[in-house]
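Milestone 3.1: sequence recovery, worked example.
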C-alpha cells in the first residue's frame, strides 16, 4: 500500500520477522527467522505457540457455547413463567363466576330465581372474558365474511339480502384480533339477485 508521498508503507511486524540468510551452521529447528525482539524462532516454539492459541480459542468457544445454552434455558424458563402468569390472570378473572355457580347450586331457589341467577352468571363470565380481550364475532344480520364466519347452510329467502347471515348456530370468538373460533351460521341466498 502506498502512502500519500508515493512510497510503499512498511509493516513493522512483518519487517521485524524477516528472513535471515540460511547458514550451514544453523540449528535444524530454526527456520532462519527472528522474532520481533531479535531471538531466533524455532519450529517447536511456533508449534507450542499455535497449540496455546488453539487451546485458548477452544476454551473460549466452550465458554461461549455454555453461555448460549444458559441464555436459551433462561429464555425458555421466562417464556414458561409468562405463560403461567397469563393463565393465572385468566383464571383469576373467571373465579368469581365459579363462585356464583357454587352459590346458585347451594340455594334451593325456584325456577324464576334460578334463571335470573344463571343470566347473571352468564353476564359475569362474558365480562370476565372481555377483560382479558375476548370479543364476540358479530354474526346475525351481518354480511358473510369467510375470515370470521363458517357457513353451515345456505337458505333461500327473500327476507334478507344475498349473503346476509340469517341465523347464528354457534358464536364465534376473537382474542384481541386473533380468531379463536369462527361463528357457525346460516347464510341467505336471495333468488331475486
Amino acid at each position: 500500500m502506498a502512502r500519500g508521498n508515493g512510497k510503499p508503507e512498511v509493516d513493522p511486524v512483518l519487517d521485524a520477522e524477516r528472513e535471515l540468510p540460511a547458514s550451514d551452521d544453523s540449528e535444524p529447528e530454526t527456520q532462519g527467522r527472528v522474532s520481533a525482539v531479535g531471538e531466533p524462532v524455532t519450529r517447536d516454539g511456533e508449534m507450542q505457540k499455535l497449540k496455546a492459541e488453539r487451546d485458548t480459542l477452544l476454551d473460549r468457544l466452550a465458554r461461549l457455547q455454555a453461555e448460549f445454552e444458559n441464555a436459551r434455558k433462561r429464555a425458555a424458563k421466562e417464556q414458561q413463567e409468562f405463560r403461567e402468569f397469563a393463565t393465572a390472570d385468566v383464571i383469576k378473572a373467571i373465579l368469581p363466576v365459579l363462585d356464583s355457580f357454587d352459590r346458585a347450586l347451594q340455594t334451593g331457589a325456584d325456577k324464576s330465581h334460578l334463571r335470573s341467577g344463571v343470566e347473571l352468571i352468564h353476564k359475569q363470565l362474558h365480562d370476565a372474558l372481555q377483560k382479558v380481550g375476548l370479543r364476540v364475532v358479530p354474526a346475525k344480520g351481518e354480511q358473510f365474511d369467510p375470515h370470521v364466519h363458517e357457513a353451515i347452510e345456505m337458505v333461500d329467502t327473500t327476507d334478507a339480502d344475498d349473503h346476509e347471515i340469517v341465523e347464528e348456530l354457534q358464536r364465534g370468538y376473537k382474542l384481541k384480533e386473533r380468531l379463536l373460533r369462527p361463528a357457525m351460521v346460516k347464510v341467505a341466498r336471495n333468488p331475486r339477485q
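Residues 16-30 have pLDDT under 50 and may be disordered. The beta strands are 30-34, 40-42, 134-137, 149-156, 165-170, 172-175, 178-181, 183-189.
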